Structure formats: structure tokens, C-alpha cells
Protein: DMT family transporter
Organism: Ferviditalea candida
Amino acid sequence: MGVGLAFISALAFSSNYIFIQNGMKRSKKDNGEFLSLFTMVILIAVLELLRIAIYGGPRMPLALENFVYFALAGIFTAFVGRILLFAGIRRIGSSRVAALKNTAPVFTVIIAVLLLGERISFWGGVGMAVIFAALFLQALHDFHQSKLPRADETKPTSPQDSGQKAPQSKLRSGLLLSFSAALFIGLGQISRKQGMVDFDDPILGSLIGSSVALLLFLLMKSVNGSLKETILSNLRHFNTHFVVAGMLTGIAQISFFAALLYTNVSYASVVAAMEPIITVFLVKLFLRREEKVTLRMGATAVTIFLGTFIIIFGK
């Protein structure tokens, strides 16, 4: 049961990337942050209300410290992490972003060592080295490929830019955005872990984090004067792909938390770490025209999964 729920989590996260990328084709200037986040908050709120109606409130009281940690988790993951992640998808595609996002456990371990005083085991270090080696080799290959002009990239994008320079700049920014997203997601995992200390309602914790992220997003849009236009634009050009993506993200979060009720966190984490591999297959099935998946990219996704496996079981 637990392993099955963890697989559902990985599948939902991977499918989320596909819907976001398809949604971006319909909305050239909108990465789907608002609509997907709003949908996710509504879904999690409904599920929490159903859980309370059936089982009652949490057995443990929500302390201020727990609330702060859940809020920080939402800021790091659902707000900053998602914005960076979706911007990365627009630049380098779902399969690369999913692989890079799965380096979050590496950042989680590093942050835990620096901030919480935890120690890295030998096998944890080996797993991190495997992941970094796979990413380094893939990055070298990508940068080399980006220097080679393709037929659709030979026209200048501006009087100053050539067709060869543009894809390399786009690739670099996409990689940087995706790595940054993984870093913030790693921070969010640490915050969520601290928030769950002496508290037994992960759905409420997820709802708090997601709601704080949504409020911050609305505040950001209000400050830069684009809140009204963002809401009206989403109403005028309602993008169902972003709605489905938000629902999938909510399902993925809840499925992973539910998996922890039935199986060891290590087993659940390893199964959930299959996310980049599943994403590669989904891209091959549904985005083959937009994104080319190579054997090397598939090998990188598998290697990152193995590195994550080693980190989790090497603790």
C-alpha cells in the first residue's frame, strides 16, 4: 500500500511537468504559477475538510513553531521553488528539469549538516558523488550540443544574437533555475521535517505551506501592479492544463505523506525518486515533438535515481 502510494506521488509529480509544459504552449507569457497553485490550495483544503469530517481534528495541537516551519516549507517549495522550476521547464523542458529537481535530497543532506549538525555517512557521500558526476557529465554534453546550430536555430533572434548563442544562453539559465529550485526544495524538505515534529496532520501542514505560498504570490503581484491583470488574464484565457497540474501536485504531496503511514520513509523516498525516470517516459510519449529525449538523458535520470537510492539507504 505504502509503496503504491509513493509511486502515485512520483507519477503525479511527473505528469504535473507534462501538463505545465503543454499549458505553456497555450500561454506564451504565463508559466502557470498562479492557477496551478490556487488549484492545489483548493484541492488540499477540500481534502483536509473531508479528513476532519471523517476522523476529526489532529490529535496533537498545532504549535506556533510547527506553523512557522510549515509556512517556511511553503515559501521555499510552493512559492520560490515552483516559480524557479516552471521557469526552468519553459527553457530546457520537463525531462532535464525533473532530473535536476531530484538533486533536492543532496541539498537537504548538505543543509542538514550545516544547520542541524547532522553527519553524512560514507554511503551518503557516495550517493551524492554519483548524482553530481551524472549531472556534471550531462551538463558538459548539453553545453557542447548547444554550440552546434540546428536547422531551426540558424536565424538570429535579434540583431545582436545569433542562432548559436541563443540556445546556449537559454540552456545555462534553465540549468541555473532548475538547480536553484532543487536548493529551495531541499530547504523546504528540512522545514517540513521540523514542522512534523510532535504534529500528526501532514495534510494541514501542506495546506498551511501552500496557502502561505499563494498569499505571497498574490502579494508579489500586487506590489508590482500586475495582480488584477494576472487574475483577469487567467479568467479570460482559462488554461485547463495548469488546473490539472495543480491538482496533480496536490495529489502527489498527499500521496507521499499517506505513504509514510504505511511504509518506512526510506522505501517511500526511493520509490518517489523514480520521478525523473517516469518523466523521461512521459516526455517520450506526449512531448516527443517538443522535447527530444536521448539515451544519455535517460541514463542520467537512472543514475540520479541510483544516487538518491544510495543516499537514502546510506543514512
